[in-house]
Design brief:
2 domains, 8 strands, alpha/beta, Double Stranded RNA Binding Domain, two-stranded antiparallel sheet, 6-stranded mixed beta sheet, about 180 residues
Length: about 180
């Protein structure tokens, strides 16, 4: 039987080893595919990004501000980039909301009232280098959805789904900004 101190030391060593690096494919400093690297997952040749309010071609108002706000927060939390205004930034992430749909997922028995809804949004977005005009990443008809329960028992308002939708979309867009490795 091992001493409790030895087990704790082994567990600590394992945690330190796991925290030391993340899987990132090829490490340029090693010159070979090592499988692990401390290098950022995002292109390091950029330091800043501007995020203007998304254009909205739908009749659902306010969603463009929610998405833009969530996107700025996600960039600040997950990437090495600073969010600046258009005049100071090296890159710009812009987008257009092209569709918002509500889909009934199920109904309550007896009354037929809607129990669960899916709110989905479709956007086109583009991340562009403002110095060269080169498109770094772009997606068309990029869709994300979030469920909510409007029935009387739960009474979630559509704004709950809009908030979740904006957060989910921001996370997916920021993930699309990663380096291709």
């Amino acid at each position: 039987m091992k001493a409790p101190g030895a087990i704790a030391a082994a567990a600590l060593l394992a945690l330190v080893a796991l925290a030391a690096g993340g899987c990132a494919g090829r490490d340029a400093s090693l010159g070979a595919a090592s499988g692990y690297s401390a290098r950022s997952l995002y292109p390091d040749k950029y330091r800043s990004v501007a995020v203007p309010i998304f254009e909205n071609k739908t009749f659902v108002t306010g969603l463009e501000r929610d998405i833009t706000d969530a996107l700025i927060k996600e960039i600040q939390a997950r990437t090495p980039y600073r969010v600046l205004n258009n005049e100071s930034a090296e890159t710009q992430l812009s987008g257009t909301i092209t569709a918002v749909e509500k889909t009934r997922l199920n109904r309550t028995r007896g009354s037929g009232l809607v129990r669960e809804m899916l709110l989905s949004v479709t956007v086109d977005f583009q991340w562009r280098d403002l110095r060269t005009g080169k498109v770094i990443a772009e997606r068309h008809e990029f869709s994300v959805g979030d469920e909510y329960m409007p029935s009387r028992a739960f009474g979630e308002r559509p704004e709950v789904a809009e908030y979740g939708l904006a957060s989910n979309l921001a996370a997916e867009i920021v993930a699309a900004m990663r380096d291709q490795w």
